[in-house]
Amino acid sequence: MTIARDLRVNQMIRIPQVRVVDEEGAQLGVMPTPRALEMAQERGLDLVEVAPMASPPVVKFLDFGQYKYELTKREKEAKRKQRSVTFKEVRLSPKIGVGDFDTKVNRAIEFLGDGDRIKVTVRFRGRELTHPELGRNLIARFADRVKDHGIPERTPLLEGKSMHITMASTHKPKGHEGPAKPGDGAEAREGAAAPAVTAAPAVTAAPAVAKPADATPATKATVPARAAAPKPAATTETRATTRAAAQTDAKPTNDKTPAPEPVRTGE
Question: Cβ atoms within 10 A of the Cβ of 85, count?
């Protein structure tokens, strides 16, 4: 049974009598609305009016919160599968080559095969605008090539410096792809497990590379230790002693003691 979103639930139902349907779809007959609401509450469900235009209105015992969740889920699934028709454009020129023309035709067939509408446009440049029949012939030839996939909606129309025509597809729009098959999931899991086996040697080789790296910081730390070692204190004392001796040698001698007279002996 299809149930709309804007439904009256529980105390919102003001009709004196209603026709009741239980959660399993069994008919319980016509009864007063308060009695139907009491029965729904005894079963832990909500009383939902599913057919307000009937006489009397039809109500059903439902878990309204769960129902709204399931309804939203179904709408999302339907929206994911549906596909809107888009409008594509194919541009031509009066001097287009044979190869380019075939490419445009194949591209238009792909669009029409997907269920899209296409707009075929011929643009004129300079004095080409004085020969609109070239554009009409080109569009007619293009429409003849894709007639198995689309039909023109109107005759070619010249607007400004371009002439165009719209074509509708004869195919139904293609929906989105369905969920993946169970076999595909198994293959995906096997593919995901393969890189784990390949990456195992890299984990084993990591400690061997890290050993030389650990020795380098120790060597660097030893060099600053030697350079920062203090000089021996004896060197400072030696310099002080040498400086004092040099000052002593530089002082002049001021001793005025007379020299002893020579001893005379009798002859």
Answer: 12
129 HSE (CA, 13 A, CB side): 9
Return the bridge partners of 180, or none.
none
Full domain range(s) for residue 59? 10-81
Domain boundary among 143, 169, 195: 169
Mean pLDDT along residues 218-233: 45
Distance set, CA 256 to CA 242, 247, 259, 262 (Å)? 29, 22, 9, 18
Give the torsion through C-alpha atoms of 74, 75, 80, 84, to 10 deg. Answer: 140
Whether 225 is in a domain gets the answer: no
**Count of structural domains, the chain:** 2
101 lies in the same domain as 153: yes
Determine whether 190 is exposed, middle or buried from the number of CB atoms within 10 Å of its CB (0-12, 13-18, 19+). Answer: exposed
User: What confidence score (pLDDT) does residue 203 get?
Assistant: 43
Q: What is the pLDDT of residue 192?
A: 44
Instruction: Tell the residue number behind the tokens 């541009």, with chain if given.
Output: 91
Query: Which tokens go with 187?
Result: 């293959």
Q: pLDDT tens across 178-197, in order? A: 444 444 444 444 444 444 44
Q: Does 217 reside within a domain?
A: no
Q: Do residues 16 and 36 share a domain?
A: yes
pLDDT band at 260 (very low <50, low <70, confident <90, very high): low
